[in-house]
From TrEMBL:
Keyword Hydrolase in annotation: yes
PANTHER family linked: BETA-XYLOSIDASE (PTHR42812), BETA-XYLOSIDASE C-TERMINAL CONCANAVALIN A-LIKE DOMAIN-CONTAINING PROTEIN-RELATED (PTHR42812:SF17)
UniProt signal peptide: 1-21
GO terms of biological process kind: carbohydrate metabolic process
GO MF terms, alphabetically ordered: hydrolase activity, hydrolyzing O-glycosyl compounds
Protein species of origin: Neoarthrinium moseri
Protein name as annotated: Beta-xylosidase C-terminal Concanavalin A-like domain-containing protein
Family membership: Belongs to the glycosyl hydrolase 43 family.
Amino acid sequence: MAHYFSIVSALLCAIFSLSHAHANGNSTFYNPILPGFHPDPSCIFVPEWDNTFFCASSSFNAFPGIPIHASKDLQNWKLIGHVLNRREQLPRLAETNRSTSGIWAPAIRFHDNNFYLVTTLVDDDRAADDPSRWDNVIFNAKNPYDPLSWSKAVHFNFVGYDTSPFWDSDGTVYMTGAHAWRVFPGIQQTEVNLETGETGDWVTIWNGTGGTAPEGPHIYHKDDYYYLIAAEGGTGLLHMVTMARSKSINGPYDSNTANPVLTNANTTNYFQTLGHADLFQDANNNWWCVALSTRSGPEYLNYPMGRETIMTPVTWNKGDFPQFSTVNGEMSGWPFPPPNLNIGGSGPFIDQGDVIDFEPGSSLPAHFTHWRFPIAESYQVSPSGHNDTLRLNPSNLNLTALNGNYAGPSGQSFVGRRQQDTLFTYSVDMDFLPNSIEAEAGVTVFLTQNHHFDMGVVMLPANSSTGPFPGTNRTLSGDHSAPIPHFRFRGISYTAVPEPAIVPVPESWQNDTLHLEIKASNMTHYTFSAGPAHAKSQMRALIDVSNAAVSWGFTGMYPTHSFQ
Ligand SMILES: *[C@@H]1O[C@H](CO)[C@@H](O)[C@H](O)[C@H]1NC(C)=O
Ligand SMILES: *[C@@H]1O[C@H](CO)[C@@H](O)[C@H](O)[C@H]1NC(C)=O
Ligand SMILES: *[C@@H]1O[C@H](CO)[C@@H](O)[C@H](O)[C@H]1NC(C)=O
Ligand SMILES: *[C@@H]1O[C@H](CO)[C@@H](O)[C@H](O)[C@H]1NC(C)=O
Ligand SMILES: *[C@@H]1O[C@H](CO)[C@@H](O)[C@H](O)[C@H]1NC(C)=O
Ligand SMILES: *[C@@H]1O[C@H](CO)[C@@H](O)[C@H](O)[C@H]1NC(C)=O
Ligand SMILES: *[C@@H]1O[C@H](CO)[C@@H](O)[C@H](O)[C@H]1NC(C)=O
Ligand SMILES: *[C@@H]1O[C@H](CO)[C@@H](O)[C@H](O)[C@H]1NC(C)=O
Ligand SMILES: *[C@@H]1O[C@H](CO)[C@@H](O)[C@H](O)[C@H]1NC(C)=O
Ligand SMILES: *[C@@H]1O[C@H](CO)[C@@H](O)[C@H](O)[C@H]1NC(C)=O
């Protein structure tokens, strides 16, 4: 197709949070620490790399995948890059089927000057006992700030997920994981060679406390005990963190009588679905926990940002199980290291807003994301004759694609960023003259291929209109089948969505740059508006739509630009 799509600028307004210290030196901070789609966090503290904390989170079908955020002060978190940044590392991401497929629950660890990242590429449409559903992989890097340092995936056999490595004091390396629970629930473990992926026999070491789906295990060694942390209850409202311990790595593991050690189940807390925790120590040997949570309240209806990363202080006395502080929005905890913004890597700090001009010589910002692998040529920054634009080439598939699940290998033209604030304004300026019926470009609130709200400019017969552009009188032309450009809002979800709104683009704007805006002006609704870029006073709202239809599942929202 000959036509092109360019965005002159993309604007996002962010709300900043501040941290400050108590008089006694304890810190005050706000949850979530990694707002937006950053579930299943795993974090480490690495003194060898200038006392830096590194966190990894799940990315499902998003590419680049497995974001790494770093901080030197536990207050300012910066995206330093992505573990999965090249197709050759794990080509199978092109073929995942279902929006709940892709990268699940990474575990990041540092050992002997190497960073290790263990995760599972899941094909969630396959049977739980089908080994091909669970592609367990190990990546390693000497330098986490250098994308090319992250290795290709080393595969290892395990019929399960949430795998995490542990180095015993005698040098033996163990892998712990959640066995495919619909078959036999349980936390399993084996010895592993992290360079080759060779494993021994997997043995069940703990069955949890009886909650659904014991998963998300990690092992820590402290005061002569091996401590096993796990998540149970499923990743919904009954999610919880439980622990067990043993004097032997192989068990038997004794459950903590105080289980669950951390949960907001059966409370009215705004932070729900709390679970899937990891523990780490800072330079003062104080313990911290990260876990996932949704800002949904117990109603659990409006949470378009999905599962986010929260942090809470932990008190871990000698010989005892650790104690976790209750998770709220405003937190108090151990003293923080002094503020330090001197962190490498390519991405923004987590609470930074965007004003992006796509100037000549720049590349797509590091926090911009595709759905599975992009066709690189489809995204051109400042192509010849169009400085300060991003040109997208159309894909044949729309955002739903073949069956709402699969889209590979030809892909979808899509680039977006995570929604990280409850209230925001997102807008793009767009030049697009569709030249064939159903050719469409625009902005979308995209959760999965089965959950998205799209506002595009699309060529449709004039009699497709559901009404005039708001505030205008334009009536249908005489020839009802003559194609004209329309603004079209469409939603798709497992729950009710509004009927499509299809209105003619006012004639005088047809060759103008258009301004498309998505605004979350309250906690439950998005407003989609459009107008000419040169006269924003003419902007009109096309529709208000509840975010409940895009509050679902494992991922979180991307306000996005797309083209089909
Ligand atoms: C994807 O999954 C759907 C539904 O499970 C199935 O009909 C389809 O054949 C699958 N596609 C591929 C390419 O595996
Ligand atoms: C876990 O449950 C299975 C099935 O009930 C049982 O066979 C196994 O012994 C249990 N394992 C442990 C470590 O409790
Ligand atoms: C929450 O309540 C449910 C239903 O009563 C119960 O099954 C579950 O154990 C409770 N969970 C916690 C952590 O209290
Ligand atoms: C400081 O924070 C820790 C961890 O939450 C807590 O145990 C301790 O009581 C706090 N100290 C004071 C003086 O509040
Ligand atoms: C576009 O940007 C390039 C590189 O900065 C510059 O050389 C060129 O003059 C610009 N073109 C226009 C039309 O401004
Ligand atoms: C998207 O494309 C598929 C075919 O690939 C089509 O069945 C579907 O109706 C289209 N529409 C939407 C809203 O996704
Ligand atoms: C709409 O039509 C009415 C009656 O013809 C006219 O008075 C009014 O100015 C028109 N409004 C616009 C926005 O064109
Ligand atoms: C639009 O007009 C064409 C030609 O008259 C007709 O075939 C078609 O059914 C109409 N579509 C709608 C949605 O009314
Ligand atoms: C828009 O541009 C096209 C192609 O250059 C031209 O045919 C058309 O008349 C223009 N429309 C308006 C409203 O200026
Ligand atoms: C949020 O905005 C929508 C649409 O503007 C409105 O219908 C709804 O009542 C608002 N909700 C609250 C709690 O203000």
